[in-house]
Design a protein that fits this description.
The complex is a heterodimer. By secondary structure, chain A is mainly α. Chain A has one domain (about 1-30, about 55-90). Helix content of chain A is about 70%, strand content about 0%. Chain A is built from four helices and no strands. Chain A is elongated and about 55 Å long. Chain B folds into three domains: about 5-90, no CATH class; about 115-255, no CATH class; about 270-470, Vaccinia Virus protein VP39 (Rossmann fold, 3-Layer(aba) Sandwich). Helices cover about 35% and strands about 20% of the residues of chain B. Chain B has 16 helices and 18 strands. The radius of gyration of chain B is 25 Å and the shape is globular. Classes of the chains: A mainly alpha, B alpha+beta. At the A-B interface, helix 1, helix 2 and helix 3 of A face helix 4, helix 5, helix 7, helix 8 and helix 9 of B.
């Protein structure tokens, strides 16, 4: 089935990125402790603004992760380079 | 030439000013309004329509030449709104999200996201993400709303995000984490399950799942906080990369939700029926012969369990809707359709004693079960005793029901001394003195002519083939 073929593309974080996921959850938990117990939202209110707001926040966070995911190898080698150059700098 | 059809506009088609659906001489058409001209032309000329139809993801259509419509009898008038009239491939049976099993809703959600991803590559987006945009055709979900596509403007937030969460993510999360029957909330809330309700009903542990925390719990809280405030978000931008990240995360959230059909009413039914294997083979043979006698174009198998008898019809190339009340049975049935790429079976959830009502504006936006046409042949196998004894329905009412939904009926009478009926009567008083072959036939003959009947060996059961009286 077509959608099944596309399921593979939907995979998000790889094993190596689990750390980022944990960081993300902890961050989100810490800033959204108030969000734990939502009160009623009745239908006469248009909830568009709230949905747009959360979309902005979530998309920004996910955008960073997505960028890292797409450029993970480059990011790792960049990190390694920075760490190694720092080590070399310390030795000197 | 500007056109507007005078055919019957479907009651579900009023929200989108860019077009509407109408029915003429039993066929469904779609009018595209001038307001959608730029988007429609872009959809057709950008290559996106071709790609999506080639992949079987959206419904294909033919443009009807307006000048030829009069010649073939359509009543059309010149009006300022109409741009094109399309004749889409016809949907053999219209179904709704509250009639789908877990995997059907999940596949519909993934299809929506998949189409959105492809659309973005061609510079388009989806302006809505309603679950009612999806129908099941030839065993798979297909996107049917041609006017949902809109040109993507870099930086714009996705206007259909809330709808996607309410129509897909919230019901699937509830089905996976709370109770699979909570998809029935979609019957009450036509625009999807309110997120504050989903947030309350989901277990606390789901707050430690980032996607559910963000898209449901925090989303619900955000809706409450900002419900009466204007934030001036119109100028806020979401980059394409952030949009892709959002789609990607919604996709993984949907795919990570799982539900396994186990330990339910009918899941193991065939292992403990009243039939010996020989009797079962004989019953299948009789059903097959009776179907051959009628040669129906459509079969509705009501109370189909996992669709064993539905497949006798579908294997003959007959389009068969396979209804059952049990979410596990429907799930197993659908997984078989998906795994074996079956194109002639449509498994759906249906509680026959409380079938889907007409819902939405004027109770007409979504059709009731009884309004969705008739089958050439209906199967009611091992069902009558549940209706008559478990639900106290008199034969008169049962016969009248079948008379409304089919032209031919293949029905099984299960007598009182059958194991299954005895089970139903173990915990209750037998107040059914009229539950006999004779009164069954008497009442059904008021609506049907009995063409044939056969007893099944090694059991007291009897199969009837009937034709509706004119």
């Amino acid at each position: 089935m077509e959608i099944l073929h596309h399921r593979g593309h939907m995979r998000f974080l790889h094993v190596g990125e689990r750390f980022m996921r944990i960081v993300l959850v902890l961050f989100f938990l810490s800033v959204s402790f108030l969000f734990f117990f939502p009160q009623d939202v009745y239908a006469y209110i248009d909830p568009g603004t709230g949905s747009y707001f959360i979309q902005l926040v979530v998309a920004t966070l996910l955008g960073i992760l997505y960028f890292l995911k797409v450029n993970w190898k480059r990011f790792k080698s960049y990190l390694r380079m920075v760490i190694e150059s720092k080590k070399n700098g310390d030795r000197e | 030439m500007a056109i507007e059809s005078k055919g019957k506009v479907l009651p579900s088609s009023f929200r989108d000013p860019d077009g509407f659906i109408f029915c003429h001489e039993g066929f469904i058409f779609r009018q595209i309004n001038h307001s959608y001209k730029a988007d429609y032309d872009y959809l057709m000329n950008s290559g996106l329509y071709s790609v999506l139809t080639e992949k079987g993801l959206i419904i294909p259509h033919k443009e009807i030449d307006p000048s030829s419509l009069n010649n073939i009898g359509f009543e059309i008038c010149v009006c300022g709104q109409g741009y094109k009239i399309l004749r889409p491939e016809q949907v053999p049976f219209v179904s709704y999200p509250y009639e789908w099993c877990f995997s059907q809703l999940q596949d519909a959600a993934l299809l929506t996201l998949n189409i959105l991803k492809i659309a973005l590559d061609y510079g388009m987006s989806l302006k809505d993400s309603s679950a009612y945009n999806i129908q099941f055709i030839s065993g798979r979900p297909v996107f049917i709303d041609t006017v949902s596509f809109t040109k993507y403007r870099e930086g714009r937030l996705w206007g259909a995000y809330r709808q996607f969460c309410q129509h897909f993510l919230a019901p699937l999360a509830l089905m996976a984490y709370s109770d699979v029957r909570l998809n029935q909330l979609l019957k009450v809330y036509i625009d999807g399950i309110p997120l504050d309700m989903a947030s309350k009903l989901l277990p606390f542990s789901t707050r430690f799942n980032f996607s559910l925390l963000a898209h449901i719990h925090a989303h619900a809280k955000s809706q409450r906080i900002f419900s009466r405030k204007e934030l001036g978000l119109k100028n806020k931008r979401m980059t394409r990369l952030e949009f892709m990240a959002l789609i990607d995360n919604l996709g993984s959230a949907i795919m990570n939700l799982t539900w396994k059909p186990t330990g339910t009413e009918w899941a193991d039914y065939y292992n403990e029926t009243s039939y010996t294997s020989d009797a079962m083979k004989e019953k299948m043979g009789i059903v097959s012969d009776f179907i051959d006698k009628i040669r129906p174009k459509t079969v509705w198998d009501i109370g189909s369990n996992i669709g064993l008898f539905s497949r006798i019809a579908s294997n003959k190339g007959i389009f068969t809707v396979s209804f059952d009340i049990d979410p596990s049975a429907v799930e197993k049935n659908y997984l078989q359709v998906r795994d074996k790429k079956e194109t002639k079976v449509l498994p759906l959830l249906l509680d026959l004693v409380n079938p889907s009502p007409g819902i939405g504006w004027e109770n007409e936006e979504r059709m009731s079960f009884m309004d969705r046409g008739k089958a050439d042949l209906a199967l009611g196998l091992a069902l009558v005793h549940h209706l008559a004894i478990s639900n106290n329905l008199p034969f008169r009412k049962i016969a009248a029901f079948w008379g409304r939904i089919c032209d031919h009926l293949l029905i099984e009478f299960v007598p009182k001394d059958d194991l299954q009926v005895r089970r139903l009567l173990t915990t209750r008083e037998d107040i059914f003195p009229a539950y006999t072959h004779q009164s069954f036939e008497l009442e059904f003959k008021k609506f049907f002519e009995i063409i044939d009947h056969k007893n099944i060996r090694e059991s007291e059961r009897r199969l009837y083939l009937m034709r509706k009286l004119n």
